[in-house]
Amino acid sequence: FWKETLNQLQQELEEVEFSLWFNIHYLRSEENTIIIGVPSSFYRDQFKIRYHNLIEEKLHELSGQPITLQYEVVSKKVIDQETTFSSQTSQRPSISAKDTTSKSLNQNTLNTSIQQKDPHPLLRRDYTFSNYVIGDNNSFAANAALAISKNPGTAYNPFLVYGGVGLGKTHLMQAIGNYIHEHSNAKIIYITAETFTNEFVQALQANKTAAFKNKYRFVDVLLVDDIHFLQNKIETQEELFHTFNALYDANKQMVFTCDRPVSELKHLSDRLKSRFERGLTVDLQPPDYETRLAILKKKADARNITIPHEVLELVSKNISSNVRDLEAALTKLIAYTELVQKPITIEVAQQHLKDVFASPKQANMSIEAIQRVVAEYFSLSYNDLKGKKRTQNIVLPRQIAMYIAREITEYSTTELGLEFGGRDHTTVMHACQKIEERIRSDPTLEPIIQNLIRQIKDYRTKN
Ligand code: ADP
Ligand code: MG
Known about the structure:
Structural class: alpha/beta
Strand content: 5-15%
Strand order of the largest sheet: 5-6-7-4-8
Distance between the termini: 68 Å
Order of helices and strands: HHEEHEHHEHEHHEHEHEHHHHHHHHHHH
Helix content: 40-55%
CATH superfamily of the largest domain: P-loop containing nucleotide triphosphate hydrolases
Largest sheet: 5 strands, parallel
Bound molecules: adenosine-5'-diphosphate, magnesium ion
């Protein structure tokens, strides 16, 4: 009954939906109960909301008696070998970038030729969906990315993913590229905004802009990574704007990543901003503890290394900033075992990751400098300035500190909100507006702010 239920659901549900969410696995049955394995408790909860009733009804219908569904969280590894994004060959659609609408017609035509393909030269082959761990920090983005991979150009165009460094933007973007490459003959280009800029400047100097235009305006899928880099690159922005329009009109899929919401890019033309935001925009958040643990496990498995569970827990607990740091810690541990030929214990991990565990503070240094200097200038305590109190004598200095932070650092308003007592990004935006208004109406304020900025710079060099 279980098999038949799945078969029927597969027929009934959207293709994309099925392959994304049916990452489940039959474990066993006890009288009138079927127990299935799921990769995490987050996954289980989401799955239950979506499909629990539907499946129970189906089971009832097919077997003629009520059957209960139960879940067990089992290790990722077991599940990955059974059913993942990439192994569901039976119901893969073929994607032809030229003809994305006739999905059902060409459903089977390409399936036979899939596996033998060479990897795409511009994409990392390990950046795939099956290597991407889903948690509640990224499930929306991953769902959307998969939908796009299956219907490039028609699902959501453009697709914009933003989020802080090391949260998996590049991985997700290349997973889209790898998926489409594997399932079609679409012409795909992956490029960082930085390389795009350099290439364009070279083309300009060599009088070869025609070749440059041809290269980018006639692709099926264009993936441009880290578009925040385009700030202040006026000619390159202009070129990308025209590239965008050409591809958009031809229904070619575009994907962009950015380290903050596009609206917060200060030096990017408005018309380019509005293009980037025309399709679907999603953000990636830092992974929670459970997802971090799952990612570490997956990375360790991929390298064929066994690391005790307690050690993985320790690392997941202590490194929460981003996935890249998690991986760096793992690499360090693996190097240790390989060189010293000793198993990794909690003590070993603690000792060798001391600096990694202690360091994430550093990035906040410049914000701290701003807060300390501003607090001192207004005779407030540093903690009051950062904190929650909203008395009149604190509010203005705090707004000034936020304004300065916005001016002289690259932090987004979201990140600044966090640095200022966990406030919302709208509070920071509001503060900046207030100060801007005040500068216009009160001529004494601007010199004070300039003076503070000088002190902050001194403070930073001294400390
Ligand atoms: P970004 O582009 O946002 O700075 P990356 O895509 O380069 O981040 O990710 C940094 C590292 O973390 C990569 O090695 C990537 O494979 C890994 N990573 C990030 N998110 C995940 C995830 N959800 N599952 C597995 N690995 C991840
Ligand atoms: Mg990146």
